[in-house]
Write a structure and sequence with these properties.
- With about 400 residues, the chain is α+β, with helices and mostly antiparallel strands.
- It folds into three domains: about 120 residues, Acyl-CoA dehydrogenase/oxidase, N-terminal domain (Butyryl-Coa Dehydrogenase, subunit A, domain 1); about 100 residues, Butyryl-CoA Dehydrogenase, subunit A, domain 2, CATH 2.40.110; about 160 residues, Butyryl-CoA Dehydrogenase, subunit A, domain 3 (Up-down Bundle).
- Helices cover about 50% and strands about 10% of the residues.
- Strand 8 and strand 9 form a beta hairpin.
- The relative contact order is 0.11.
- Keywords: Flavoprotein, Oxidoreductase.
- It comes from Williamsia herbipolensis.
- InterPro entries: Acyl-CoA_DH_C (IPR013107), Acyl-CoA_Oxase/DH_mid-dom_sf (IPR046373), AcylCo_DH-like_C (IPR036250), AcylCoA_DH/ox_N (IPR013786), AcylCoA_DH/ox_N_sf (IPR037069), AcylCoA_DH/oxidase_NM_dom_sf (IPR009100).
- It holds the Pfam family Acyl-CoA_dh_N.
């Protein structure tokens, strides 16, 4: 658990040291903080420019974070999801967009483990780790207009998705669609430069501007049946672990929300110490001595630490499921989803509160666009609308009242 809000203020860490792979979780988390410090230095300027984040993804590759979950024998970090969530949180403190990109990438890197056969898992993780693939995904569940045609030895995807996070910067893209003949959902990984795959670069939203989450057209994109995740002889091999994609991605959300909140609180504290003026009628010489300023930072820090502690505890609980992936039960999965829902609700509330209330203790001049404190709010406000947090609280409430476990859906 992160117990302080201190941050690595080194703007230019020694990147030559990145040629060596960290040997433990602590080393990877330090590496993530180094990446965050590089990103934070010009996050506001890059957000304004809105350029496709090729350099930022190259940074994630250079640092090794893209292979954090990859097998050690193939050059990966060999880390688990407990470390991965802390890494996502650290990177998001420097730049929320890149924290999201990394989090989504790690989920799609893991997708073969979620739904693939043992042979597919081995093949995908070997290739992805050795080649440092960066993953994108065209799997927006609100759009059910991608159909799959069975061509015999191959399958072809055709349709459109409104959102495809990481599109222009990915090496490979996870596609999802519905097989015309049976209605089965099929996931497959294809090269992002595949013929017929067109990313429209039309993401123009309030926040998370560098996530390349625009729409995609999929026109007869063809791949081998052998790449259909979890299918053997054109039949899917189901297990409960297949449904863990939602708890994973929701906990990814939790951690980059908390990372953005942490970054906001750190940036605000720096501004208050260095720039904010005390109120002229308050009787104090420094803003940091104002009682209401002290109280606000104490309040927000306490709430952030509490939300981080819950997120860390839920991550540990989830790791036990990952460690028992082939035998996890529906009851274990459902009980875990309730805990994830609670963490999601807590992270949403605290991130929105922190990114809003920091202006109360930084002063009117802190609203200047060159200061950039608005970036934290815009990022959190944008992504927390992904799915209504009220439905997360409903999962928790119904479990508390009647012991109900949520049924697996695209959002629960």
């Amino acid at each position: 658990m992160t117990s302080t809000l201190s941050r690595d203020t080194t703007v230019h860490p020694d990147r030559s040291a990145w040629t060596e792979t960290p040997s433990d979780s602590a080393g990877w988390i330090r590496r993530a903080h180094e990446v965050a410090s590089i990103l934070a230095a010009d996050a506001v300027e890059r957000d304004r420019a809105g350029a496709t984040p090729h350099a930022e993804v190259a940074l994630l590759k250079e640092s090794g974070l893209v292979t954090l979950l990859g097998p050690v024998e193939h050059g990966g970090g060999g880390q688990n999801w407990v470390t991965a969530y802390e890494v996502i949180r650290a990177v998001a403190a420097g730049d929320g967009s890149i924290g999201q990109l990394l989090g989504y990438h790690l989920l799609w890197f893991w997708a073969a483990r979620l739904v693939g056969t043992r042979e597919q898992i081995e093949a995908v993780e070997t290739a992805a780790t050795q080649n440092k693939w960066f993953f994108g995904g065209a799997v927006n569940p609100r759009d059910s207009d991608v159909t799959i045609t069975d061509n015999g030895d191959t399958i072809s995807y055709t349709g459109r998705k409104s959102f495809s996070t990481g599109s222009h910067v990915s090496d490979v893209t996870v596609l999802e669609g519905v097989l015309e003949t049976t209605g089965a959902h099929i996931f497959a990984i294809v090269p992002s430069n595949s013929e017929g795959l067109t990313f429209h670069h039309d993401w123009d939203n309030l926040g998370q501007r560098l996530t390349e989450s625009g729409s995609v057209t999929i026109d007869n994109v063809t791949t081998e049946w052998a790449s259909a995740a979890g299918f053997v002889d054109k039949e899917f091999q189901p297990r409960v672990y297949n449904t863990l994609n939602v708890p994973i991605i929701q906990l990814v959300f939790v951690n980059f929300y908390l990372g953005i909140a942490r970054g906001a609180l750190q940036a605000a504290a720096d501004y208050t110490r260095d720039t904010t003026r005390p109120w002229l009628h308050g009787g104090f010489d420094r803003a940091v001595d104002e009682p209401y300023v002290i109280d606000t930072y104490g309040d927000l820090t306490t709430k952030l630490w509490a939300a981080e502690a819950l997120a860390d505890a839920v991550a540990v609980e989830q790791q036990k499921i990952h460690d028992n992936a082939w035998d996890v039960t529906a009851e274990e999965r459902g009980a875990h989803e309730v805990r994830v829902a609670a963490a999601k609700a807590a992270a949403t509330d605290v991130a929105l509160e922190i990114t809003t209330r920091i202006f109360e203790v930084t002063g009117a001049r802190s609203t200047s666009s060159k200061v950039g404190l608005d970036l934290f709010f815009r990022n959190v406000r944008t992504h927390t609308l992904h799915d209504p947090v009220a439905y997360k609280r409903r999962e928790v409430g119904r479990h508390q009242l009647i012991g109900e476990l949520p049924e697996p859906t695209w959002y629960s």
